[in-house]
Write a structure and sequence with these properties.
Radius of gyration: 23 Å
Number of strands: 31
Strand content: 35-45%
Structural class: mainly beta
Length: 438
């Protein structure tokens, strides 16, 4: 991805060992958001005022969208605190500010910026985070995303997800002649660009763990096969010649294998392709439809949906001994399982009584929680940290031509649902959230 992501250096220049009392519980529903004030970024030397403003806005927007932070109104600020000065904690506390952020940006060589920031616990009257970040000017937004990640992680104890991307299928044109192209964007919708041309129908893109490649289904020459895209060079190659239609690819946690569905003699089973040895191994057996594989983060298990018990349900396969068990028994059908990065949850699509739902459960199929419901929604995918998901929803319309598909995000409490903005005329489906960018 060298052509897309400019080189970025990340240096921590001061971490303060004191543990702040200021903390938010990201799991608890109805948690009161932390009031955080982000000062105007100081500029040193030749720094674009527009860039400094943009950096501040990106940090604020990242934090605000989580629902865990309330951005203090700039007009209420009691003072401007220079980077080397101590805040007047009493005056900030008077406007109910709990956390204060100072930042400065200056040139670092001809084509780069250096951003430094401090995070203060107002009640504790202590500095709890201090970092220095360097990136090319073209990648300045990444500075803000990484800064927001650091603030989020310090105040929640969870892994941040702002310095990430989402790959998806961008649909344009009328419903009866819809063009489907693979596209990629930052997690906040910025910088969308196409990865495939408009002449080839594509589906089901998924990142490799190292973000170097993407596997996807392509109907090139009307032949549905799994292909691999190199994000650095843009080269596309067929994964292999498997002697039948193959689809629903998903990388293993180590990035060396791809699980996929393969149709042979009218029967759909799940296979595993080893990209190192170039060998194919059958994982499921029987006269039924097995699809949508998803590895557990330790690579020991595979969740998938199957109609082997008479209706579409989620099963888990033990890759060591080949045994499998059904884990969903609720009313309705279950599909598209997605194992969370921390291994504690499996997200799913549920279809019951003509309604689609996005939900989560534990790997044993218990403690099911519905996060969203609607006319049509599918394809949940996890953000790093396992506290937020992305999915797509198509709204019901009186006229098929008026139907719009949105990419939406929700946290595991079922709260704070928001749309990710797409360019005008673009519908988004089948999103997959990336790991943190390298």
């Amino acid at each position: 991805m060298k052509k897309f992501l400019c080189a970025l250096a990340f240096v921590v220049f001061g971490l303060f060992p004191a543990v702040a009392e200021l903390h938010v519980d990201i799991v608890a529903g109805g948690t009161e958001p932390i009031a955080i004030a982000v000062q105007k970024f100081e500029t040193i030397g030749k720094v674009s005022a527009a860039d400094a403003k943009m950096l501040r806005e990106v940090v604020e927007n990242d934090l605000k969208r989580t629902g865990l932070f309330r951005i203090v109104n700039h007009d209420a600020f009691p003072q401007f605190v220079k980077m080397n000065d101590m805040p007047n904690f009493k005056s900030w506390a008077a406007i109910k500010t709990q956390a204060l952020v100072q930042a400065s940006v200056k040139p670092d060589g001809k084509d780069s910026y250096k951003l430094e920031f401090y995070l203060w616990d107002v009640a504790g009257k202590e500095q709890i985070e201090a970092q220095s970040l360097i990136a090319s000017k073209k990648s300045a937004r990444r500075l803000a995303h990484i800064m927001a990640d650091a603030i989020y992680e310090r105040l929640t104890g969870e892994t941040g997800y702002f310095d990430t991307q989402i790959i998806f299928i961008a649909e344009t044109g009328s419903v009866d002649s819809r063009v489907k192209r693979m596209a990629i964007m930052d997690q906040d919708g910025f910088g969308m660009r196409y990865l495939s041309d408009k002449n080839t129908f594509v589906m089901s893109p998924h990142f490799s763990p190292n973000m170097a490649t993407v596997v996807f289904l392509s109907f090139r020459n009307d032949d549905p096969m799994v292909w691999v895209l190199d994000l650095d060079t843009g080269d596309q190659t067929k994964l292999g010649n498997f002697g039948g239609m193959n689809f629903a690819p998903r990388f293993s946690p180590d990035g060396n294998k791809v699980a996929l569905s393969l149709v042979k003699d009218g029967i759909t089973n799940i296979y595993e392709y080893n990209m190192v040895t170039k060998t194919l191994k059958q994982l499921t057996f029987g006269n039924h439809i097995d699809t949508s594989p998803s590895y557990s983060p330790d690579g020991k298990y595979l969740a998938f949906n199957s109609d082997r018990t008479g209706s579409q349900q989620i099963h888990v396969l033990d890759l060591a001994n080949g045994t499998q068990k059904r884990i969903t028994f609720g009313a309705g059908r279950y599909a598209t399982p997605a194992w969370s990065p921390d291994g504690q949850f499996i997200a799913f699509t549920k279809i019951a009584e003509d309604t689609f739902y996005i939900g989560v459960m534990n790997p044993q199929g218990r403690h099911e929680k519905i996060l969203a419901g609607g006319w049509y929604m599918e394809a949940p995918s996890w953000a790093p940290g396992s506290r937020r998901l992305v999915y797509y929803e198509t709204e019901k319309a009186d006229n098929d031509k008026d139907r719009i598909s949105h990419i939406r995000s929700v946290d595991i409490t079922g709260r704070n649902v928001y749309d990710i903005d797409l360019p005008d005329g673009v519908n988004g489906t089948e999103p997959t959230w990336s790991p943190k960018l390298p």
